[in-house]
Amino acid sequence: MKNRLKVLRAERDWSQAELAGRLDVSRQAVNAIETGKHDPSLPLAFRIARLFGLQIEEVFDDGHDKD
Amino acid sequence: MTGTTRTDAWGARRADDRQRRRRVRKALTIAAAVAVMGAASLIGGTTVGSGVTIAPLVTAFCIVAVAAITLGLGWREADEVLRRRALHVFAAVGVVAIVGNPVAEMLGRAFHIPSPTETLWWLSIATGVAVLLVQRWRDREAG
Predict the structure, then answer these.
(1) Which residues of A touch B81 (CB under 8 A)?
(2) Domains and CATH numbers, chain A
């Protein structure tokens, strides 16, 4: 699944470690999600979206257009 | 922008704390393992009434206890990515141990290997370490 995590993080000038600390996950987790190697669980996806003040679909893109 | 800058980078400090806790846990695990080995050598000659040496039993119990506590603490501390990595490692170790057991038994009989199951045990551990390293290397490549 594609996501805008790297862009959103860069907009706030946050390092991966900074974002990891704010989400209470490891830096490896942030890296794996950013590079698309890991699709986050629903609770973590909600936490990410909430941290940036966005809806989940504004952060993650499953490749399907809305009807 | 809703976020803050690096000057009040509480997230990075929290990540550092998390890293520090992992290092402390690793150090405590090593200390506990050394203590178990030391204790086992100290009580090596102790026997119970029936003449059974209790050192192997105590050592085995301590090793299992240290492993269980370490895994439990690590699992609680880990996030979903680290847990997935750990599950891949456990799966690889398990598959090698299960599939390799009859093969090791046969090869042991055919080639007169003294303890084929012990060799298999080491092989499964090596497989687990290899899977762990490959996962870390692939993630680093992607990063």
Answers:
(1) 25-26, 28-29, 32-33, 38
(2) 2-59 (1.10.260.40)
